[in-house]
Amino acid sequence: MNAQPAQQIPGIYHRKIGDIIVTAVSDGYLDGTLDVMRNVDLEKAHQILTDAFRPARRTSVNTFLIRSKGRTAIIDTGSGNYLQPTAGFVQRSLAADGIDPKSIDTVLLTHMHPDHSAGLTDMSNGQLLFPNAELVMHENELAHWFDDGAMAKADERSAKLFFQAGREQVAPYKSRTRLFGDGEVFPGVTAIPSHGHTPGHTAYLVASGQDQLMIWGDTVHVPEVQTAFPEAGMSFDTDLAAAATSRKRMFDRVSADGVLVAGMHLHFPAFSRLARRGNAYALYPEAWVHAL
Ligand SMILES: [Zn+2]
User: Fold this and answer.
1) Ligand 1: distance of its center to the CA of 286 in Å?
2) CA of 8 to the centre of ligand 1 (A)
3) Which SMART domains match (predicted)?
4) Rounded to the nearest whole angstrom, what is the distance from the C-alpha of residue 61 to the centroid of ligand 1?
């Protein structure tokens, strides 16, 4: 008899965008409650998830590898060993794709939250997990999380989870960190500032030939609820109102143009399109294809 499987093969999924290969690399998922949602009737939010056969908030954590012009970047690094045992699988997933982390020359961060930046560094010993990579992010992001005044105003949990841990994750890359305002930040990858969730939160538009992919970062955390109620945000949005404005602007842009989107918290492998439905939106995951 064949052996019974106990787990999935690692989560990797390739998508060609013109001459660029984008690979969704799963970090796993995080479980939580809806109590962290803001600006939404929680009863309605629960009902939406129940109706979608997702009675609890289970959040995919995705990263995206970009192979472009002979170079390799990864957008975000997952949660390392810092959050839940259901996440932290980026290195395992990369290995399954035959990728040596030493061969990754650039790490682009959407923002410095631990489900995105804790995979940079082994926090138990300070060892770099992408030892040859330049670390690249929006200038506001580093400035905010290293701002002692902002940290002093944060509650104890945020001070530890976001400020202190974030500093530990990026500090080992200090001599090779590059900050940007906007523009092309890697071959074929343009930074689209989308601030609010954090002060430097950034989406990345991947473009080659006629093809485009908007990797929209944390535009949504609970896709079913936030496409139905674009106002809805999270307790850990640095600026709830600005995050909602950025979310609506992003929704308008990608739905008007029919642009392929991916996100760090869309259900893996995340490649989807967004359609406008009155005042709300609907996400349509792209069908799986075998060959590039
Ligand atoms: Zn996140």
Assistant:
1) 22
2) 23
3) Lactamase_B (SM00849)
4) 7
Q: Given phi > 0 = left and psi -120 to 50 = alpha, else beta, which region is 183? A: left
Structurally, how many domains does the chain consist of? 1
Distance 3 CA to ligand 1 centre (A): 36
120 CB burial (10 A radius; 0-12, 13-18, 19+): buried
State which residues form the domain around 45.
12-285
Taking the centre of ligand 1 as the mean of its atom positions, its distance from the CA of residue 2, in whole angstroms, is: 38
> From the CA of 32, how far away is ligand 1's center (Å)?
13
pLDDT (tens digit, 9 = 90+) per residue, 49-94?
A: 999 999 899 999 999 999 999 999 999 999 999 999 999 999 999 9
For residue 68 the two structure tokens come to: 């472009």
Residue 224 lies in a domain: yes
CA 30–ligand 1 middle distance (angstroms): 10
The radius of gyration computed from the CA coordinates of the chain, to the nearest angstrom, equals 18
The answer to whether residue 256 sits within a structural domain is yes
pLDDT tens digits along 36-53: 999 999 999 999 999 999
Residue 34, Cβ neighbours under 10 Å: how many?
17
Please give the distance, rounded to the nearest whole angstrom, from the Cα atom of residue 113 to the centre of ligand 1.
6
Closest C-alpha among 100, 77, 101 to residue 89: 77
Q: Domain for residue 6, yes or no?
A: no
Q: Are 121 and 35 in contact (CB under 8 A)?
A: no
What type of residue sits at position 147? D
Measured in Å, residue 150 CA sits from the centre of ligand 1 at: 20
